[in-house]
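Listing 4. Sequential folding, example run.
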Amino acid sequence: MKRYLALLMLPAALFGQSKSLLIEDMTWTEVRDAIAAGKTSAIYYAASVEENGPGVALGKHIFIAHYTAQRIAEQLGNALVYPTMPFAPTNDPVVKSGFMAFPGTIHVSEQAFGLIARDVALSAMAAGFKNILLMSDHGGGGQEALKRVALELDSTYKPKGIRVLYIPDLYFKEKEAMKKYLPEHDLPIDNHAGTDDTSEVMFVDKDHKWIRPDKLIVDDFKFGVRGDQTKATPAMGEIFINYKIQYAVAQIKELLK
């Protein structure tokens, strides 16, 4: 009888141990123990909150980043993921230029964006991580800030055995691959929230919360889209996100040789 009760209690005990690679899901002792066991790389993945037309939720980049960062960590095998940075430089909120003309878009300055990335990187060092990997799903602003932060901190801490690396291939090489893929499949290349981005959200949107299928459009930015959302498919989204994962993992491994 005692053995039976012990078996009944076992799943509950196991359930209490986090299997997540997201530090937000873990206790501090679990993070400590994971680092001691070899999880010595920290992923800092920035996103943004910005308009994507009437058919795609504002958190597009957050949804993609949250999913992709975990897959990158899984493939690396030695990484944990810091909380997704939700804000990025977009356009001028005072004059409401560009994306800021659409309600819901959030802007932070390049300076603020860079300072947050720097402080998170320093926090990861304090925790005991040896490799801090900075990347972004947003191309409109912040990429250069991440590059500057990585160069500054890496030059300072590399002699101490700590690396801080900027991973641009995740974003830019995926865009290059997308611009090759779409014409090969008789689809127009898009610039913002079009076939590429919408497909990626469709793929990660397992609960069907973030897409309004009847409101997907073809647009030249009158409604905040530059491209054709109506051609998007979850299958293409999986392809494009896999590009991001593949290029990021390859660049990280190359830089850490």
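-- end of first protein; second protein begins --
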Amino acid sequence: MIFNTNRSYYSAIKPKKMTDTTTTKSLEELVMEIPVEQIVQPTIPIKVAIREAGNLQRDATEDKEALIAKGLAPEKIEELAIRADFLSDKQTLWIRKYETSTNNTKEWEALEEEASKLQRELKHDFQFALRNNKEALRKLKNITKGNDSADLAQDMGDYAGFGLDYPEELGAINFDNNKLTRADELSHKLNNLVRVVDGAHRSKKHPEKQMRDRAYTYLKLLVDDIRAYGKYAFWDDEEMQKRYSSEYQRRKYQKNKEDENENI
């Protein structure tokens, strides 16, 4: 997709002054207009994309006359910084969300490991203590039917309540009642985390992730467009051709070629 290059379009994306009474679109509104099918996933690190956009703005500014002569609107060069800053902001929001989800996932994994171990211990204790009580064993079997994350959280609560119903049988095997207290604690903690963790596992659907990808696409569209003009303007200059291409991608390509040669 090629964005409209007329001045009225590009003036719309500039920060609005406090005295401006005209209707303008925010950057968020502009990036939301990009069709879903044209949104691209980052192919290079975001920090690299932002740094290369800055380098491109510097180079294009130096070559402005040659680029304008080939039809490039000068506003596009100035706009690189605006789109790069927008991407930087959205990347920060996404990383903050991602790290929060990751930390919750790590906490869940630690609690899940403890709860799974306690679950096996309680099942073993109960089965032995209640070995002569068929009705109790039937109830115990119903508790252990599930096997997913929500079931584990529920099991901890069920085991805690179940154990309190049979104090004499458990006392006869010198059962440690602290296990029931801990099972109840784990049940509450796991239930509080399960929704957050399930959301982390669907991280691609997070609004912050989607907006970051849109911001990356928004910057990439402009970077690709300016680079195309640069390659056209300096089509017979090999060094200038490199100037208007991604250094990161060139190095990545070169490394892949070297790796291929080593495997011959």
